[in-house]
Amino acid sequence: MFEVFGLSVSKLASVSRPPGRIVEVPGRGDTFVYEMEGPPGAPVLFLIHGLVATTQLNWFPAFPVLADRYRVVATDLRGHGRGFPAGNRFRLSDCADDIAAIADTLGIDRFIPVGYSLGGPVAQLTWHRHRDRVEGLVLAATSRNFGGTLRERTWYRIVPGIVAGTRVVGRVRGGGRPPEEIELGDDAFLSRWAMEELRRVSPTVALQAMSTLGRFSSHEWIDDVDVPTAVVVTTKDHFISPTRQIKLANAIPGATIHPVQAGHAACVLAYRRFVPALVEACAAVTSKLPGRSSNARETLGPGQEEA
């Protein structure tokens, strides 16, 4: 396992990007799929990234850690990164159906969707629309509905501007390349690599995704979830309130809660705290599967338990 302590976001990304390949999905076209096989017969985790992110940007700190114990699969959502084209309209239901179709193509019968932020509704819908395929759920920094508070609504409005800004900065500096990093405050920054990942998403898709997210609600059916579920709660989240995240967990029978003292970008900017909580959540789910057991601590690499 790699040593993460002291590595910057860009340096960590360079050593932990998962392998991938182009996969042709019948009736849908080509998409890029990241995959690490894990141990023989291991449960399958299907990682689903957040709004205007990509698989690599959202999951690169977690991918190799999870692959110690699970088969890990991921792809970029429609209109994001190297995913399917979004078409005229971005729909969460299409994203959920994409997940099942990609699993079909890869010969995966049952899997565990792991959804972060926007990936949370996609994971929920994957269970709702393809219940025979989903054997568990892991939901992180997400909710049953979105955009309820002024701060949340403000965040959703400014995200397309952030995406557009990464493109403008690159053009102004010449050659389409952004600067080495941009300071965001509180010791956070966007590395050149992270900015290049953000530039893979168009502001138009970002707007469509946020509009769709604002209309999403699973209130009417989320309490029907009948598979083991774990919810990772980002307790300092200003964009999806911790209260909203806990309500999601409480609505799902038997769901476990795994807190992380970090904000909404915990998956990258607080990965030393987020990854252990994610591993613990995955273990809580897989330990409840028939014939399965999992020990979260065994999957942690050097430096992962330090905040």
CATH class: Alpha Beta
Placed side by side, the strands forming the largest sheet appear as: 1-2-4-3-5-6-9-10
Helix content: 25-40%
- Looking at this structure, what is the CATH superfamily? Alpha/Beta hydrolase fold, catalytic domain
What is the domain total for the residues?
A: 1
> Overall 3D geometry?
globular
Structural class: alpha/beta
Q: Write down the secondary-structure element order.
A: HEEEHHEHEHEHEEHHEHEHH
Number of strands: 10
Distance between the termini: 18 Å
Radius of gyration, whole Å: 18 Å
What fraction of residues sit in β-strands? 15-25%
- Determine the number of helices (DSSP H or I, runs of at least 4 residues): 11
Describe the structure in your own words.
The chain is α/β, with parallel strands linked by helices and 307 residues long. The protein has one domain (9-144, 218-299): Alpha/Beta hydrolase fold, catalytic domain (Rossmann fold, 3-Layer(aba) Sandwich). Helix content is 37%, strand content 17%. It has helices spanning 9-16, 55-59, 63-66, 92-105, 119-129, 150-172, 192-198, 203-215, 242-251, 266-269, 271-286; strands at residues 20-25, 29-36, 44-48, 71-75, 112-116, 137-140, 181-185, 188-191, 229-234, 256-260. It has an eight-stranded mixed beta sheet with strand order 1-2-4-3-5-6-9-10, sandwiched between helices. α6 (150-172) runs antiparallel to α8. The protein is globular.
Question: Secondary-structure map with pairings?
Answer:
Layout: H1 9-16, E1 20-25, E2 29-36, E3 44-48, H2 55-59, H3 63-66, E4 71-75, H4 92-105, E5 112-116, H5 119-129, E6 137-140, H6 150-172, E7 181-185, E8 188-191, H7 192-198, H8 203-215, E9 229-234, H9 242-251, E10 256-260, H10 266-269, H11 271-286
Parallel strand pairs: 3-4, 3-5, 5-6, 6-9, 9-10
Antiparallel strand pairs: 1-2, 2-4, 7-8
